[in-house]
């Protein structure tokens, strides 16, 4: 498809790993790209490779999304640039020590990057896309959103936030020309492990997905219109059953009466 149809994709955390691979694969699909990250040299090298390989425009936009002023500049770009049709919210970090082993500043930085930044960018993009009647938002969450006991709860909680954000936003914009997808990777071979002081090779090899495979599967899910894509999950029925069970609880989650199992002795005898 040509750029007049695809438009421009803005990708955060685009200097390496999942973000860089999204940029490469989206440009091959006909998107121009805006690459957002802190490492200007890496961004320029990637932009040059993309343009040479695909002929697509590849712009670099250096920004530290933890810095509120620099984040605001990216928000403005999403709000004002009518060529942008896709946001890939990929930038993120993990902690070295978890909740009990990390300093407050490290926890604050994770929340700023994993929660505040993608939320504000999704808000800016969502408003702009709804006004234009066209667009897509891809939020990179994690399977840990579904398995908080398996890893640090600050990181998994930030990814659960992105899953909830995606489900809610998708329901709001599904009839307004805008698509929203949450991608839930499992362990993936990226630099995030080294930055968090962990060794991805400590996992059994069969548990670790290569970045190219993850992103290709995620884009297939997006092109199929999935709201939640879990590339490593072989049995889709497991996710479907879990989601249906969650929805089935809905009518009973807010009631005037206390559930019978919580009645005290006086209440039970009066019932």
From TrEMBL:
Q: Which SUPFAM superfamilies match?
A: NAD(P)-binding Rossmann-fold domains
Q: What is the lineage of its organism?
A: Bacteria, Pseudomonadati, Pseudomonadota, Alphaproteobacteria, Hyphomicrobiales
Q: Which UniProt keywords apply?
A: Oxidoreductase
InterPro entries of this UniProt entry? NAD(P)-bd_dom_sf, SDR_fam
> Pfam families, from UniProt?
adh_short
Write down what this protein is called.
Answer: SDR family oxidoreductase
Species whose genome carries this gene: Hansschlegelia beijingensis
One GO CC annotation: membrane
The GO terms describing molecular function are: oxidoreductase activity
Q: Which family does it belong to?
A: Belongs to the short-chain dehydrogenases/reductases (SDR) family.
């Amino acid at each position: 498809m040509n750029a007049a149809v695809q438009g421009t994709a803005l990708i955060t955390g685009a200097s390496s790993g999942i973000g860089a691979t999204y940029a490469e694969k989206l440009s091959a699909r006909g998107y121009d790209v805006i690459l957002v990250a802190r490492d200007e040299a890496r961004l320029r090298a990637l932009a040059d490779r993309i343009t040479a390989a695909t002929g697509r425009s590849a712009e670099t936009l250096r920004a530290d999304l933890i810095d509120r002023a620099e984040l605001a500049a990216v928000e403005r770009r999403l709000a004002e640039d009518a060529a942008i049709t896709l946001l890939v919210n990929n930038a993120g970090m993990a902690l070295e020590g978890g909740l009990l082993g990390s300093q407050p500043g490290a926890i604050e930085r994770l929340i700023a990057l994993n929660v505040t930044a993608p939320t504000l960018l999704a808000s800016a993009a969502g408003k702009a896309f709804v006004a234009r009647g066209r667009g897509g938002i891809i939020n990179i969450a994690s399977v840990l959103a579904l398995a908080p006991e398996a890893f640090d709860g600050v990181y998994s909680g930030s990814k659960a936030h992105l899953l909830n954000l995606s489900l809610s936003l998708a329901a709001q914009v599904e009839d307004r020309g805008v698509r929203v997808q949450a991608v839930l990777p499992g362990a993936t071979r990226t630099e995030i492990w080294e930055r968090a002081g962990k060794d991805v090779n400590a996992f059994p090899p069969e548990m670790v997905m290569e970045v190219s495979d993850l992103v290709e599967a995620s884009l297939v899910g997006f092109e199929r219109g999935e709201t939640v894509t879990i590339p490593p999950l072989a049995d889709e029925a497991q996710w479907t059953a879990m989601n249906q069970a969650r929805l089935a609880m809905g009518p009973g989650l807010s009631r005037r009466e206390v559930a019978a199992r919580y009645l005290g002795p006086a209440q039970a005898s009066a019932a």
